[in-house]
Amino acid sequence: xxxxxxxxxxxxxxxxxxxxxxxxxxxxxxxxxxxxxxxxxxxxxxxxxxxxxxxxxxxxxxxxxxxxxxxxxxxxxxxxxxxxxxxxxxxxxxxxxxxxxxxxxxxxxxxxxxxxxxxxxxxxxxxxxxxxxxxxxxxxxxxxxxxxxxxxxxxxxxxxxxxxxxxxxxxxxxxxxxxxxxxxxxxxxxxxxxxxxxxxxxxxxxxxxxxxxxxxxxxxxxxxxxxxxxxxxxxxx
Length: 237
Hints:
Layout: H1 2-16, E1 20-28, E2 33-35, E3 50-54, E4 65-69, E5 74-77, E6 82-83, E7 95-97, E8 106-112, E9 121-130, E10 141-153, E11 159-171, H2 175-183, H3 188-236
Parallel strand pairs: 1-9
Antiparallel strand pairs: 2-7, 3-4, 3-8, 4-5, 6-7, 8-9, 10-11
């Protein structure tokens, strides 16, 4: 009976395996991401080998190994983008992913090999690499130019046509702001029309004012001539 329980206990350990801890590490594309992992080192005798692999920790070793260390130094390295920058002699075996990419997202296994049956320290880490946000706003500006004409009346009765340009500049907007502007009421067109009308009215009123001033000068001259004639007549009489 005792042998039966021993066999069941061994089978349970083999199939269940050691307890595996889990954690989630998030980062952005282009950053250096550190996935934490460590074990207790009280003396040189506690320093041991370990490995990092892609995917969940298997029953032994690491699946799709990316880095190995004998406890003192790195002995196997799949890519220079995977590094152990912690103090290995103090049990810091955290994995650093240099210049992270979206393809680096996934599960990583940290296995520390401890002597004895089923004593390995294992931990699974879920790494999530998010893409950097891209701004949709454009630094460029757009201008709209409209030319209006005005007429001036000269002394000889002919007209001279002159023109002037009004330029307005609008800052660029994103796609969402453009859609909102298209659906909502717009007052820029009416404001622009009012400005153009005021300028045209001002340009037309200027020739009339000049014409009135010329008539005033002519009237003053005629009065001066008549006054001179009357003075001369009185003098002669």
